[in-house]
Amino acid sequence: MQLQEQDQFQDFHWMIEMLQTIDVGVVVLNKEYQIKSWNGFMENHSGIDSKDAIDACIFVLFKDMDEFWLRHKADTVFKLKNHAFSIWEQHPYIFKFKNNRPITGVAEFMYQNCTFIPIKDLRGEIDKIAILVYDVTDTAVNKLEAIKVTEELKQLSRTDVLTQMYNRGYWEETLVGEFNRFARTNRVSSLVMLDIDHFKKVNDTFGHQAGDAALKMVANTLTQTLRDTDIAGRYGGEEFSIILVDTDAKSSIVFCERLRKVIEKSEIYYAGKQIKLTISLGIYEVHTKLSTYNQWIEGADAALFEAKNSGRNQTKIYKYKDH
Description:
Layout: H1 2-18, E1 25-30, E2 35-38, H2 40-46, H3 50-53, H4 58-61, H5 67-80, E3 84-86, E4 112-120, E5 126-135, H6 137-158, H7 168-185, E6 190-196, H8 199-206, H9 208-225, E7 231-236, E8 239-244, H10 249-265, E9 267-270, E10 273-276, E11 279-285, H11 293-309, E12 315-317
Parallel strand pairs: 11-12
Antiparallel strand pairs: 1-2, 1-5, 3-4, 4-5, 6-8, 6-11, 7-8, 9-10
């Protein structure tokens, strides 16, 4: 029986030899994870000759291998006696081979799909498994590049070109989401609308490029002041909008006043001329009597109008009135 088992494995080994020139990696492991076959693909990409690989423990030979993952995958094949598969989207590689293909030179390593095949002895017991390793770097890189381009286009569609903040369309989508979240959870948030004071005068006095510089300065200052959970965007013209998540109106005053004071102390130099700016801000805390998100915007705008009408460079909180 032992001789028959050896003959069976020898037949399998001859088949492996036939695959030496095929562009697929073939590795055979026993239950102790010792390498029993190592084809030319594996030699070429690992730099390890088969005579050095045979009988070596694969985890000793490849110390940076994800041992837990491979043992789990292989143990499943040993126990269930079925094929198993691994694709690069789930696990980028088993063997971290350098990518040496000129077309996909941007990839740091070879992306791999792998097939795990149980090898039975004459008793029908699984005593070894074969791992077939396929180089799918071209496919992976092309897909990743497509995903990257899609994400970049999506980001561009959300972004105001001048200030690099969210544009009104995307920001308003997030406001709708936050309004609906409040309806479900009753967790309070506040909406802030802010406006650059006397912005038309900046454009008329220094030109529209100076006005653009002023918008960028306010946008940058606002971005640096935000918490990670806050959502801000350019609402239109010289007006910006901010959703202060999980923040009531009283706490929002702290944020608004800090932002207002920083901008008041800031200076812009354009074409050798100094430009000083101030902003006015309006706050409206969401509450259960609001039936639409538009009413939330209207209240914050009304508070902003009150701040500007009261002398500008200040923050006002909107007091609820029945709509």
